[in-house]
Structure formats: C-alpha cells, structure tokens
Amino acid sequence: MTTYGRNCPTSPKALLSAATTPLIFMEQTHQDKFVHIKSRLPQSALGVDALVSTEPETSLVIRHADCLPIEIRTPTCVAALHAGRKSTQLKLLQKVVQYIKSFSSESDKYSITFGPHICVNCYQIDRARDTHYSLRDENYKQLTVELPKSAFSLTEVNECTKCNHEKYYSYRGDGKGTPMNYSIILGLQKIEL
User: Between 13 and 123, whose confidence is greater?
Assistant: First the structure.
C-alpha cells in the first residue's frame, strides 16, 4: 500500500491518471458492503467500502481522510477496505476475511497492512464523557476472530492523519471539505509460464 496525501509529489488527479495499471475506485458509504472484482471493469464500484480482486494487474484505490485504509493480500487475491467507525462497528473487516476464506486454501497466509489513520488520542467521539475510539484496535479484534495469529502478518503505518498534518489530510484536523488521501494497492502480478 502506498498512501499519498499532502506528501504527493503532484496532484492526486495527475498521479492517478499516470497509473500504469487499471485503477478501481469505490464509492465509500461507511457501510459493510463489498464487491468481488473479477475483471478490469468496472473502474468504480458504487455503494461499497471494500473491494476484493482476483484480477491480475489492477490496482485498488481507497480515498480516506481519518478512516483506516486496510490492505489484505493472499496468494490468490488482494483486498482494499475503507474502515471508518460505522463500517468497523458493522464488522466490515471480519466479513471480508470470511469471504476470502470461502475461496482460499486453509494454508494460505494473509499479509495485512493497516495504513495511516486517526489515532485513538485524536479520535474523540464523546466530548462530555471524554470517550475515544480506536479504529486500529477494533479492526485488529475482528482480524483475530477470523484468523489465528499464525495465519497472518500485520504491517502497521503508525502515523496519525491528524497528528501528521504536514503529511496527510485529516477531516478532524482540516474540517469539512478537506481533500482526501489516496491509498493505492497494487493487484496480483501476472506470472508468465
């Protein structure tokens, strides 16, 4: 996963138009819906917060400000998830892993990446009670419900989008109308025999 925010060397639009593989976007709705991409078309999926792809040489794109971008990679597929609080509470990650398990081998290893997102200290959801929410911890719990720790490796980009204001856009830091960060996940590589 590569994430571009304020650190993007060019505009995100120019960056995306310069891509060397087809890009598939999702219209993120903060729900638990996902779609399995089995061809290079469509270039966008409506009303979903996750994409699962078994199509070689496509890239999946997550637009996010403070939500947690998640990459899942197995030998047979890649997935991109946009995990905000609502989709996390609806157990999006758990549902996507269940789905991937339905067509994967039991011996498949999962490589998971948690990208930059708002940290628990900055994500206050109830000011009166000083209640904070951890996107990282809640999604990690879902992961361990579905997979034994020996079945996956987890890479974490431990950067808060609000604390690292010079690098990332943050809804809670910048306010309504903030531009989006783009996390791009390269698809499966085609192997010529």
Answer: 123
